[in-house]
Design brief:
This protein has 572 residues and is an alpha+beta fold. The protein has helices at 23-42, 46-57, 60-70, 89-98, 129-149, 163-174, 192-195, 198-204, 209-216, 240-248, 251-260, 291-306, 346-362, 368-386, 392-413, 419-426, 478-492, 497-505, 547-556, and strands at residues 109-115, 121-126, 183-188, 220-222, 225-227, 261-263, 269-271, 276-280, 283-288, 318-321, 326-328, 331-336, 339-344, 427-430, 433-443, 446-451, 524-527, 542-545. A hairpin with a 2-residue loop joins strand 15 and strand 16. Helix 1 packs across helix 3. The two termini are 44 Å apart.
């Protein structure tokens, strides 16, 4: 049922070389079981679901993918309370063998704090790598169930969905002032991850309850002191966002049953299309035709959350008219006359400006090229997030603010020089832009121009919302999701022409294993002929791989990988 290559099918007590695993086949095996879990969940066959989950969590393919996930993400070098990391192929292979349900006992989490936007501190629990891998393994079996039973308009921490989908749904629900709702309940759950009731989760989350109970009761260590956990699921765990989503799923149906459909005195059902829920993790909005309707909706929400040990945050929950507007996921949604516009929130612009100003201050004595390389990822990331909104004014303002910071930076370095000299020293004319902050750098011995990213150079494009019924684990959606993967990947790599062209020629797939390359998986650029052997930087000599596939290829010194092909829609 879970057939894998000979090395991956070896008895669990045998050592399996990490780089001998066939990652493409491991992925296919896991996907096949996940598709069966989706089918059983949709049919309500929960006994079958449990049996398939047991198969997946005990399969070597699932264990290999779980270890690979926790050793390839950004937190791979962040240890838990045991101080261990898995940086070698031998350590990863041993870790894969150690993932067993029998005798498993999770260790306490290492508690750290990160700053929140409102100045408060957010507690973060860091599990050990072993516990992270176990969570990733069980998430492979739980996520197909979560996606099948999830609310249609829930967008946070879900595959194939994003914040842009949630914002586009806001426009869909509010974009026609003559027909759409004019009032909004802007709500936020107080301490969602920290207050979820354990008993409710153990009774309603369809997974191995013995393992789930151990995670929930593991406790955390802060300043060398062990503290118990009686409620909540820790932020920082791989499976925590999915658990929180499953706790909140059902709110859309509750509102539909209690508010959206009403029975009149004669027993007729009245349909009220102005009640809509749009949720991203624990941040959500409910639309309505009047404050009174939303007050009733708020009572339903409070009742729903109380059952799960949760409550609304008073300072972040309010009922507002659409003409006043509200902030949601870093953007502002507001009615202007007869049009609903979604723009970058003022707070979002102020936040990115503060970050840029901090970078410039830390680079007072740095070379121009180092400052540009530090600024570009920040500017590009912020712009790419907001490029689907009505952002032209915000982009122009950001460019102006950045110019002022850079002008002050340049004047400070050359107090005795004239403005004309400073302008010629640091700014150039490129295309139609006469003030381009740029310098010359050497790449492979050849001079190249390194320029600052400008927000106004990014075109504004409307985001196409994902279809509400999409399930990333159901085979019938594979072609649709692959098309979106190509389109969204091209948009996310905007401004990185070399990488974008290479990614498009490979259809967004790894040259080694054939699986999709995404921001979550990461990537590595491989040279078919090594540079030390005379290999060039031409596209014909480059391949895009997963980082793990790249290391595997060099470890085994395998044959040549398939080269990039010509693609009609590949943009240079």
């Amino acid at each position: 049922m879970d057939a894998v290559p000979k090395a991956a099918c070896a008895p669990s007590r045998e050592a399996i070389p990490w780089h001998s695993l066939d990652w493409a086949k491991c992925s296919r095996n896991v996907k096949r079981l996940q598709a069966r879990i989706v089918k059983a969940t949709a049919a309500g066959r929960w006994g079958k679901v449990k049996a398939l989950q047991w198969l997946l969590t005990h399969s070597l393919s699932g264990k290999a993918l779980a270890v690979n996930r926790v050793t390839e993400n950004k937190g791979k070098d962040t240890p838990g309370v045991d101080g261990e990391t898995w940086s070698t192929p031998e350590a990863k292979a041993d870790a894969m063998q150690s993932l067993r349900r029998r005798g498993y006992q999770p260790q306490p989490l290492r508690r750290v704090y990160i700053p929140k936007a409102n100045g408060k501190q957010r507690p973060l629990g860091i599990p050990t790598l072993t516990d992270r891998a176990m969570q990733a393994l069980h998430l492979l079996a739980l996520d197909p169930v979560s996606e099948t039973t999830a609310d249609r308009n829930s967008y946070g921490f879900r595959k194939a969905r994003s914040a842009h989908d949630a914002l586009e749904q806001c426009f869909t629900a509010l974009g026609k002032p003559s027909k759409s709702a004019q009032w909004v309940l802007d709500a936020d759950i107080k301490g969602c991850f920290d207050n979820i009731d354990h008993d409710w989760m153990l009774a309603h989350i369809p997974m191995d309850t013995q393992v789930l109970r151990k995670w929930l009761k593991a406790g955390y260590v802060e300043r060398a002191t062990l503290f118990p956990t009686e409620v909540g699921t820790p932020q920082g765990g791989i499976i925590s966002p999915t658990l929180a989503n499953m706790v909140l799923d059902g709110l859309e149906h509750r509102l539909a049953d209690r508010i959206r459909q009403r029975k009149t005195t004669n027993g007729k059902v009245v349909y009220n299309p102005k009640i809509n829920l749009i949720r991203y993790a624990d941040d959500f909005v409910v639309t309505g035709d009047s404050p009174e309707t939303l007050a009733k909706a708020k009572e339903v929400v409070v009742e729903f959350l109380t059952e799960r040990g949760l409550g609304l945050s008073p300072e972040k929950t309010r009922i507002v008219p659409l003409s006043e507007g509200f902030n949601f996921l870093g953007q502002n949604v507001r009615l202007y006359g007869d049009k609903v516009l979604i723009k970058p929130a003022k707070e979002a612009l102020a936040k990115v400006y503060d970050k840029i100003r901090g970078i410039v201050r830390r680079h007072k004595s740095a070379e121009q090229r180092d400052l540009i390389r530090a600024l570009n990822p920040v500017i590009r990331g912020w712009v790419n997030y907001h490029r689907h909104a009505v952002s032209s004014v915000a982009f122009s303002k950001l460019d102006h603010l950045v110019w002022k910071l850079l002008w002050q930076w340049a004047k400070r370095r050359h107090r005795g020089k004239s403005r004309t000299w400073i302008r010629r020293r640091y700014w150039r004319t490129q295309g139609t832009r006469t003030w381009t902050f740029a310098t010359t750098v050497l790449i492979d011995g050849k001079p190249r121009t390194l320029s600052l990213v400008y927000a106004t150079d990014t075109p504004i494009r409307r985001h196409v919302k994902v279809r509400a019924e999409v399930n990333p684990y159901a085979p019938q959606w594979e072609e649709y999701l692959m098309e979106r993967h190509i389109e969204q990947g091209a948009n996310s790599l905007h401004g990185r022409k070399r990488l974008l062209r290479l990614w498009l020629t490979q259809d967004g797939l790894c040259s080694d294993c054939g699986e999709p390359i995404t921001r979550e998986t990461g990537w590595a650029v491989h040279h078919a002929q090594r540079r030390v052997d005379g290999g060039s930087e031409r596209y014909s000599n480059l391949r895009l791989l997963h980082p793990n596939c790249h290391r595997k290829h060099h470890a085994k010194e395998a044959g040549p990988l398939p080269g990039p092909r010509k693609r009609a829609d590949a943009k240079a």
